[in-house]
Amino acid sequence: MPSVTDPAIDYAFDRQHIWHPYTSMTQPIATQGVVSGQGCQLTLDDGRNVIDGTSSWWACVHGYGHPEIITAMQQQLHQLSHVMFGGITHKPAIDLSKALVNMTCPALTKVFLADSGSIAVEVALKMALQYWQGRNKPAKQKIMTVKRGYHGDTFAAMSVCDPDGGMHTMFGDNVTKQVFIPAPQTPFGFSPLQTSAEDANNTLDKADLDALIHAFATHHQQVAAIIIEPIMQGAGGMRFYSPAYLTKLRQLCDDYDVLLILDEIATGFGRTGKLFAYEHANIQPDLLCLGKALTGGYISLAATMCSDEVAKGISDSPAGVFMHGPTFMANPLACTAATASLQLINQQLWPTQIASIETQMIAELAEAIAFEQVKDVRVLGGVGVIEMHHTVNTAELQQAFIAQGVWIRPFSNLIYIMPPYIISTDELTQLTTAMKQVAASITAPQIHSDAEFISHG
Ligand code: PMP
Q1: Which end of the chain is more exposed for a tag (fewer CB within 10 A), N or C?
Q2: What gap in Å lies between CA 82 and CA 102, rounded to an integer?
Q3: Ligand 1 atom closest to 292 (CA)
Q4: CB-based contact 440:383 (threshold 8 Å)
Q5: Positive/negative CA dihedral, 408, 410, 415, 416
Q6: Mean pLDDT within 42-46
Q7: What is the value of ipTM here, to two decimals?
């Protein structure tokens, strides 16, 4: 048996025995062995370094090997790595929850600490349903959401994922039928195709307005909550949409007694240029889901926050308590990592970092719009996207990117980056150059030979 420090990767064992996200065990995808990470660079098992353009799926915003997070975790590991949370509390959970309550909007006062983004979404949906039980509106059993959304892989989370995207067909009646609105259309952020920045930023397209009003007027009596990824739909197409959409949504939720759940698992902690994406619209949600960058990617942890009113409604429900309590709830090691990560966020370097990443990506990616196979180029905050006309071959392009010294993993027809906030100008130029070269090299539609399903944004 290899020791845990042996860098040799047993690819044959990996292929035969280990699931990867959205893969087949009979037609395994190509995997790349990674042995370490430092700053924005991952070191591969053959000794090459690649710049991580994905922050490991939005999570590693401070880069790898950050001394402050590591030291905090090491100390906590020696003190108390895990303890149950039933009838016990501890400083790591309290410190983290204080930070979250302080950083988020005043409406959000209560914190539920779970272990993954999907569970943060499950918790939010369950809270919304229990709330209306406590407010004597038991008919409010449905969740409303928009098409092209992605909220996770567990059953309730799947039920609010895009209904046409594969999540629903495999599991039949086990996936609850929810109420879907068309995906938001009113654009936001930079695109060389936009004619007027003002149009893009301030006015809600009539189609969006009509769809929202119709959905609330028709379904409000059965709808407990609406869940949406604010400002940016991630896995559903890396689509940015107008803050005006969220402003209208908040107003309709108030008018029709529907709770507003924002899924900021990807957008939270600065990624879109605001600490939380709801700040673009100056609104406050009733419930907020956080994950990914919460711990800077150092360990799995997620949070669901809610208002006093939601918490009171849950207490008034027949159960009297919130019906959820996982084993690793508020794990002290994870809470410590999150508090250390949020301390770095609170040092306020991220606004300048994200602003310069955005400016540089606009300057360097815009020209890709001229390439034959490119349909659109979009930039918002620390997210840069080249949308192709056709689906690309993920496995093939992954290799092309590694050959250029970068780690970028396209999906569907999208080549996109959301680099660590600490990325240097030179490293970012390497990423955007690779994106343009690879996009330019695609001259004909590619066949998507990879078994991996479009999922993680
Ligand atoms: N919501 C959004 C918006 C996400 O991007 C993701 C993860 N890609 C999730 C929920 C699910 O989080 P997790 O993978 O940690 O379960």
Answers
A1: N
A2: 25
A3: 15
A4: no
A5: negative
A6: 96
A7: 0.99
Ligand 1 touching residue 261 (CB < 6 A): no
Domain count, the chain: 2
In a domain, 264, yes or no: yes
Question: Is 256 noted as a catalytic residue in this protein?
Answer: no
Q: Where are the alpha helices (DSSP H) in 107-242?
A: 117-134, 155-159, 197-202, 206-219
One-letter amino acid at 70 equals I
Sheet of 414-417: strand order equals 374-380, 383-388, 414-417
Average of pLDDT values for 160-173?
Answer: 88
CATH number, domain containing residue 34: 3.90.1150.10
22 is catalytic: yes
Structure tokens at 347: 């040092």
Q: Structure tokens of 178?
A: 């929810």
| 221 and 328 housed in the same domain | yes
Picking from 57, 58, 66, 44, the residue whose alpha carbon sits closest to that of residue 401 is 44
pLDDT of residue 175: 95
Q: Which residues belong to the annotated binding site for substrate? A: 57, 150, 292, 325, 409
- Is the pLDDT reported for residue 64 higher than 80? yes
Identify whether residues 144 and 25 lie together within a single domain.
no
**Of 308, 404, 323, 420, the residue nearest 65 (C-alpha):** 420
Q: Are residues 245 and 177 in the same domain?
A: yes
Residue nearest to atom 13 of ligand 1 (CA): 117
The total of other beta-carbon atoms located within 10 Å of residue 423's CB is 26
Residue 148 lies in a domain: yes
Looking at the structure, tell me whether residues 54 and 195 fall in a common domain. Answer: no
- Asked whether residue 57 is domain-assigned, the answer is yes
- Active-site annotation holds for 162: no
Its domain, for residue 275, covers 70-346
CATH number of residue 225's parent domain: 3.40.640.10
Provide the CA 452 distance to its chain's centre, in angstroms.
Answer: 18
Of 150, 245, 298, 421, the catalytic one is 150
Q: Find out whether the beta carbon of 118 lies less than 6 Å from any atom of ligand 1.
A: yes
120 and 201 co-located in one domain: yes
Tokens 């020696």 sit at which residue? 78
CA–CA gap between residue 111 and residue 88 (Å, rounded): 16
315: its two tokens: 């207490």
Candidates 61, 227, 265: which one to mutate for ligand 1, based on the most atoms within 8 Å of Cβ?
A: 265
